[in-house]
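Researcher: Quick one. two chains, 768 residues in total.
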Amino acid sequence: MKIVFKKKRSFRGLSLPENKITAEKSIEDLPVPGEAVIPLQQNIGASCEFMVRRGDMVKTGQKIADSKGYVSAPIHSSISGEVSKIIKMVNPITSNVMDAAVIKSDGEDSRVECDELFNIRESDDFFSLKRIIGSIDKEEVLKKIREAGIVGLGGAAFPTHVKLKPPPEKKIYTIILNGCECEPFITSDHRVMLEKGREVLMGLYIIFKLLSPQNVYIGIEDNKKDAIEHLEKLIVMMNLDDLFKIVSLKSRYPMGAEKTLIKTITGRSVPMGGLPMDVGVIVNNIATAKSIYDAVIEGKPLIERVVTVTGAITNPKNLKVRLGTSIRSLIEKCGGYRSEFNSIIAGGPMMGISFANTDFPVTKGTNCILVKKRRLQDEQNCINCGRCIDACPMDLMPLMYVRNTKKKKFEACKEYYIDNCIECGACSYVCPANIPIVGYIKTCKSELSKK
Amino acid sequence: MEVKNNNILISHAPHIWRGFSTGKIMYMVVFALLFPTAASIYFFGYYAIYLILTSVVTAVLTEFVIKKLRRRRFIMDGSAVITGLLFALTLPPRLPLWMAALGSFFAIAIAKEAFGGLGYNIFNPALAGRAFLTMCFSREMTTWVIPPNFNYDAITGATPLGENFTYQADKISLYKDLFFGNTGGSLGETSAMLILVGALILIAFHVIDWRIPVFYIGVVAFGSFIMGKDVLLQVLAGGLMIGAFFMATDYVTSPVTRRGRIIFGIGLGVLTVLIRNFSNMPEGVSFSILIMNAFAPLIDKYVKLKPFGFYKKRKNA
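Model:
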């Protein structure tokens, strides 16, 4: 049966220099850090509260924070040791001050014992694994996913168990596994697909069993041919070829954005202000599927993830690190800086957040650490060229946001549907006048939300 | 938006930039304009060089002085060079140099900088300068010469669109002369071929949008056909080619959306046909563009894009 399909792009967007220099580097383990800093806000939705106090001893995988809110995910200790202090730190995304626990390692890395583990070592063949997955109760699976603290690992960090339990009136027809990784430099999902393809597919199978949709697609950009071939082989081997289809997508930014991906694969547009489930689609990230497998089958909570360390680094690498590890130790592991740099970015170059130093921890949403030198350019006058309009995947008019925000007419931006902006950065990238359009949009959005 | 902190930049995403800057765009346009410029020098002799240099140097100097007076930073982004060059290409081949300098000064000082500089001007500066000269020195601005081929003592003669224009040979050689440029007219407008070469380069590199010139020229051709005029003559003669490809496509004074640009091009075509056929002027390209420039902000106000996922909302509402 045919597994790989090709799809053309369905939105404007742009083609970027890929710079995926770590694509060939296999994932390396970073040793358990001596200290882990675990912030409280790691997901969209309600933020957690600590269940431990200063001086408590915690084990690896122990839940240290939880929230009663539905749209939230608990947070686990990624190492074993003592909670040495609770500090305040600034949430880089929202600029709020949040608490963070500092855990000093005791060097033992003793894990919390997990109950009801499936003995997968004995039943290593896929068919018994499939049977096991089929036999688990759905509510049980969702509970496990929540307890493992799984959030969308593509960057948005939306709690996965909420996503996987759509309201009953929304029928889900299609599940898309997002393996696009359309941002330059990042290769963590690519490596996970190549090295943990089996786990990823089993995670997807769990999602499939939860929602029983008609179609399951794995969307992968065609610059990752090896990943497409590898997953194709695995799908055949696991006898899933009547369920899963791989869609080979044109490499175009922002293909990996939820809305553009859905439009390209299914042809349906998510309505403005709506969610993918409004058109019967749920999109999950590769790394999320893998951690669903870890949580449901192996009983492991989300305490580690793969991070690409790249840019002006001596040995760019894909590292598997514990959450809470300081970025500094990641960069040290990769041999330090290769050349001059002036920006440290968590995430990709198009949507990542820049930091002033390397004293920030890896969180659930960190998929890449990019160190690079940026040319300083002054902002010039808008010359009305319309390149931002041509690049916008959401068909917006970004220059209008700049104009109106400069005049402090924030309400006027609403007429141009500013809420529909996904802040992908395509407009700023192409702007000949080097206007930080996304910066203006963020300013405008935060002014609008104040009212 | 960038804060310096221990040499580490804190800035908004994205952290990469295509680097296709305003300056690069402007110099690409200058490069494309070199083709019609070469034609003007070839057909109208050395005096064309003096005229072009005068107006380019005046434009850049004016911009420099005004930026200093306004205490703004002077950026050599090439926009003043374009204005000076385009302005020179719209001039009659034997205009006195001081008039060219005056017009160029007007273009930069009044039409561009008085409105706030690059990006804020309502009217195309080069055409505003030309309109100013047409008002002040209407006799000199309508004195045309037959291309003398390096012969300074040129004979005056009418342009192909003028009422008393007569052509001795057959129509085919008239079109040939119009296409290659061996005809009377402003400095840069005579050779349709070299204008097309420059314009195709710009379109190939996505510097200008093809919609404005294609719709503009298309509507002029259609309108001339309806009016019973010689379509090829109307398209190839006069300032239509250089106006449609190099002046109407000026980013600042044209609409931003693709649909808006189509409307803009159609409006230009209609106005040009009306002026050419019903006014007492033989040529209407420059005034059509100036009039449509005034409408560009209005078009931008009413032509809005439907964003991604828009149709659903309307269905539900």
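Residues 1-5, 150-154, 312-317 of chain B have pLDDT under 50 and may be disordered.
Researcher: Thanks, that's what I needed.
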